[in-house]
Structures are given as C-alpha cells and as structure tokens.
Amino acid sequence: MFEGIANYFSRHNAVRKVAEDPATAAELLLLIHLGFADGEHSARETAVFSQIAEEQFNIPHEALPEVIKYLYDFGYETTTGQAAALFADMAPERRISLIENLMAIAAADRHIDADEVALIQRIAAILGVTPEEVVAARRRSV
C-alpha cells in the first residue's frame, strides 16, 4: 500500500516539476516531436527518451506516461519553433545538450531520416547552434 502511495506522489511530483519549468517542458516536447518526425516511432526511440528523461531530468520511468500526457495537453498548440525559442537565452552548453539529445533519439533506430535531420537543423538554427556544433553533437550521439 505504501509503495502505491509513494509511486502516486512520485508520478505527480514529476508532472509538477515539468509544469513548473517551461524550459524542461519545452525540451521534452522537442524530443517527443523528433520521435515522430519520420512518421514512425520505435521502441528504441522510446527507450532513449526514457533514459534521457530519467538521467537528465530525474523523471522516473513510471511517471513518464503522466508527464507525456501533460506535455501533450501543454504542447497541443505549441509549435517546434516556439518550444525551441525558449532556449535562445540558455547557456551554450544547454543548447548543445539539447541537440545531442535530439541526435541520440534520431539515431536510436539506427536510421536518421531526412525529416529528422531537417527538424534538428531547424532547431539548431533557432538556437544559434552552428553546423559544426551539430556535426560534433552527432559524433558524440552515434
């Protein structure tokens, strides 16, 4: 019983954490957008997204369905450009980290589609990340 209560609060705390940090919400939303950029969403992409969410944002795996539901509701009218624009004033390391995460998800299914490349390039341009930095991020993510 106590484990069930703890899981409930863990899931809701994760949603609250994302809701209270627009940059985190925007980054997760961009990662989700990329997962569907090629028209397909693989189990490997989901696994990489889950790993990023847990390791970088401390969102436990069991909380992801509720976080994703929140992001769907939050992001229903949020475009990729709007979400990326939240990063314009972020430190360069944070912007490059986002590109690395996008590349990791794109490479997860062992095939980087032209639509995924186009989306990453568009986001990088909005963030002011140079093509050289994107290439370096790709090398680190593959």
Summarize the structure.
The chain is built from eight helices and no strands. The chain has 142 residues and is mainly alpha-helical. Helix 2 crosses helix 4 (64-75).
Question: Could you spell the SSE succession in H and E letters?
Answer: HHHHHHHH
Q: Which regions are unreliable across 5 or more consecutive residues at pLDDT < 50?
A: 4-9
Q: From the alpha-carbon coordinates, what is the Rg to the nearest angstrom?
A: 15 Å
* Helix run count: 8
| Strand portion | under 5%
Please give the domain count: 1
CATH superfamily: TerB-like
First and last CA, distance: 42 Å
Give the CATH topology: TerB-like
* Alpha-beta classification: mainly alpha
CATH C-level class is: Mainly Alpha
Helix content: over 70%
CATH architecture: Orthogonal Bundle
InterPro entries: DjlA_N, TerB-like
Pfam families: TerB (PF05099)
Protein name: Co-chaperone DjlA N-terminal domain-containing protein
